[in-house]
Structures are given as C-alpha cells and as structure tokens.
Automatic annotation (TrEMBL):
Domain of life: Bacteria
Keywords assigned: Membrane, Transmembrane, Transmembrane helix
GO biological process terms held by the UniProt record: intracellular calcium ion homeostasis
Pfam family, one: Na_Ca_ex
Places the protein is found: Membrane
Species this protein is from: Pseudohongiella acticola
Chain ranges passing through the membrane: 6-28, 40-58, 78-99, 131-150, 156-174, 190-211, 223-246, 258-280, 286-306, 318-336
Protein name: Sodium:calcium exchanger
Positions of the Sodium/calcium exchanger membrane region domain: 14-170
GO molecular function: calcium channel activity; calcium, potassium:sodium antiporter activity
Amino acid sequence: MSSDSSWWNLLPWAAVLLASLWTAHWGAEQFARPLRKLRRQWGISVAAGGALVGLAAASPEIGINASSAWRGSADVGFGVTLGSNILAIPLMVATAYLASRTKRLPGDSEHREHLQQRLLRVERSAVTVQALPYLAIIGLFALLTVPAPWRGLQPLDALILLGAYAVYLAQALFRKKVRGERVEWQGKEIAFAIGGVAAVAGGTYFAVMATERIVETLGISRIIGGLFITSPVAMMPEMVATWALVRSGQTTSGVTSVVGDHAVVLTLGLVPLALVSLPIEDMGLFVTSLVFMFAMGASYGGFIHFGASTHGFLRWQVLTLLGLGLCYVAAAIAWAQ
C-alpha cells in the first residue's frame, strides 16, 4: 500500500476520533451541570467542588478506559491516562492564564492588579483540597504498579482504587463547607444528564475504535497512540471549557478542575483496566511518565502556594509548566524509539 493511500485511509478515522471525543465532551458537560448544582446546594467550596464535578470532567477518560478494556485494547486507555495526567496541567493552566489576560473579569475587583503582577489568581485551598491529595494518589498508583511482585494492574487493585476515590471525594466534600444555596431542579436537565452519559459511552467507544485504526495505519504501538494522539485530541474540548470558565470569572474552577479530573482518572478511571488486568511492558516509558506526573503535580501545588504573595500562577511559572510538558514529550519519544 502506498503512503498516499495510507494517508487517505487515515483521514476518515481521524475525523471519527475528533467527532467522537467532542461528542463525549458534550455528554460530560450535560452530566456536569447537575453536579455543579449539587455543589452549590450542599455548600461545597469551589476548590473542593472540583472533586465532585471532576467525576463528570473525567468521564471521557473513564469511558475510554472502559471501552479499551472491552475491546481488548487496554494500552490505548493506559496511554490516554498517562497523557492526560501529564500534559493537561500545563495546557489548562496556560489556557486559563491567556483567558484571564483581559481588563476585567466578572466578580474580580482586584483583577487589574493581577494583570499588572502578571498573575493568574487561584484560591489557596486548591493546594490542600486538590494538589496534595492528588500527589498521594500518584504515590498509590506507583505503589500498585511498579514493584515487581504485583507489577501492573490486577482485579484486586480495582477495590483499592475505588476506596482511594471514596476517601479523596470524602475529604473534599467535608472540608471547608459554606452555606448551601437553594436550587431548582428540572426534569429536562436530568434527561439531558442521562443523555450525556449515553453520549460519553458511545463517543468514547468510537474514539477507541478510531485510535486502533490510526495506530495500525501509522505502525505505532497503541500506548503511544493513546498518549500522543487520543489524549491531546481529548484535551481540546477541555481547553475550550477552561477558557469559558475563566472568561466568566471562575478562575479557580477553571484551574482546579483539571486536578480533580486527574484524581478521578487515576482512581475510578483505572478500575476498568484493573478488572481486565493490565501488564506494563515498557517500564522505562512508564517510570519516566510517573516521574513527570509527580513533578507536574508538585509544581502545580508549589507554584500556587509559594510562587506569589497572593496565591496563583505567575507568567514564568506558567511557562515552566509548559517547558516541563515539552521535556516529557521529548523523553517519551526517546523511550518509544
């Protein structure tokens, strides 16, 4: 088969991948709306709410893992998991920073000062509620997968991961509660939420199928395809959502949702892969990914807490996160060759 023919075979599946992941994101947004209402009704702070709303935000990754496990392509889901937990943080923070570079954000009376400081303001509680528990989850993930006696993911790990998610969600929901709001529930939004779940399931199934066809055409491994093809495409709708949140004045929500998303992906999201048992064949790539995953999470929390007199990200810190992401891409490509 000629190279031109291969590229023509690739284009339809690339279109399927794009359409499928945008469909899944649409479904996740419908599912997220009632969760945001619950956050306000239960009096959960914005930072802590990321742990709850992250269940919807992470649903495309959960769906990809479930679909890849079902189709016998667990490496696709595993690659997406690694990619989303390393590359999404710098991309979302950079998107939020650019979205905040306007003269005024709704509800932020000090925004002009933040512009002068070149600062993306984030609530301090994002560190203790989101970043520190996320680092603990990364440690648990490494403990379950790296040591030789139980290397990889097994069905028993599914129970441990479910318990870890329950603890993570509980510590967020019961920390720093505020006064709840009265909200009205409509049958239409519940119907849309149910439809959203169906859209996530269908969209992610076809996304995995498209990834399988793309990696076959390109002659690359499925884990690399999930890491460098499916994962970046899946981030595109999330970047649009982050931009919209920050432009509406919800900077903390826009910045912290990515970590809440990742915490769900590394616990609840890995359950389907654990149930079918996932061996780790390329330990070099995997350990490299773990190192960068921890470094990215630690940098995220450290920059918010220590980087400025008021908590948030300065411009040089945003650029540092992007540089760290580029270093990972280079290292992963080197290991893959």
